[in-house]
Amino acid sequence: MKEIDVIDQTPSPISKNDLIHDLKALGLSSKDNIIIHVSMSKIGWIIGGEVTLLQALQSFFCEGTIVMVTQTGDLSDPRIWENPPVPSSWTNTIIEEMPAYDKYVTPPNRLGRLPRLFYNANDVYRSDHPMDSFAAWGKHAKEVTCYCDYHCAFGDKSPIQYMIDHDFKMLMIGTSYDTATVLHYAETKVKHPPRMKQLLFIKDEHGQRHVLEVEDIDYDTIYFNEIGQDYEKHHHIQKGFMGQAESKVVDVKSLVHHGITYLRNMERQNA
Fold first, then answer.
1. 106 alpha carbon, distance to own chain's centre
2. pTM for the model
3. 88-101 CB burial, b ≥16 within 10 A, e <16
4. Contact, 98 vs 76, CB < 8 A?
5. How many independent structural domains does the chain possess?
6. How far is CA 239 from CA 20, 24, 83, 136, 184, in A?
7. Cross-strand bridge partners of residue 52
8. What is the rounded CA–CA span in Å between residue 108 and residue 185?
9. Contact at 8 Å (CB) between 139 and 63?
10. CA angle, residues 202, 204, 210, in degrees to nearest 5
11. Secondary structure of the chain in the HEC alphabet?
12. Each residue of 154-178: pLDDT tens digit?
């Protein structure tokens, strides 16, 4: 959405204090540990944009932890690119020349303005997976981002496991459940998930670049909105607004467990 359209749809400019007020109205606490997904344009026109939003979040969750997804889908195996694909004659050159993931430098891709600001902000830690990283700030930032498994990006050795074990919440600001990255964990718990081989571009402890071939699950968000809608039929969630964006607060552990049950039931029905 163009900025002029956001301005036209915003009754009055949104301040840091307005955003903090909205977080309180959602029933959140300064001690909450939370993973956040946001659509900036849905909130409305914020004075200071994503900088003000980040300052509001850090001021409010000053005793807790903030996590955001900082995935780098463009730092991936060009042989499986689809959006857009590249000519097959290019792939060997891309593989030879693709830079290795650097958690301090490699920017998030296609995730919006806030994660691109957040990953490089002061006191933010970032996990080591070269495609499917998370960044965190606050009380448990170092612990949640020390998890990494090249062979199962969203499984038992991922930051999602830490969030499940430590009662994290998820805040969706103007987004739907198809942004709920934590639900990828549920995909790792079905009996026969689709799998695929892919290349990862990594650095070793000496800074040397390596190309690592791994086999991981072929993750997909296709059922995430269905899972979320079914979850809301059985669980109470807190709803409200951040600016003009419809927002929801969801318990990560219960959502993921619901997702596991939902996908396992689907698998049995399709067997």
1. 16
2. 0.95
3. eeebeeeeeebebb
4. no
5. 1
6. 15, 12, 33, 24, 23
7. none
8. 20
9. yes
10. 45
11. CCHHHHHHCCCCCECHHHHHHHHHHCCCCCCCEEEEEECHHHHCCECCHHHHHHHHHHHHCCCCEEEEECCCCCCCCHHHCCCCCCCHHHHHHHHHHCCCCCCCCCCCCCCCHHHHHHCCCCCEEECCCCCCCEEEEECCHHHHCCCCCCCCCCCCCCHHHHHHHCCCEEEEECCCHHHCHHHHHHHCCCCCCCEEEEEEEEECCCCCEEEEEEEEECCCCCCHHHHHHHHHHHCCCEEEEECCEEEEEEEHHHHHHHHHHHHHHHHHHHC
12. 999 999 999 999 999 999 999 999 9
Domain that holds residue 207: 3-270
Whether residue 124 contacts residue 234, with contact meaning beta carbons closer than 8 Å, is answered with no
pLDDT digits (tens, 9 = 90+) for 199-241: 999 998 888 999 999 999 999 999 999 999 999 999 999 999 9
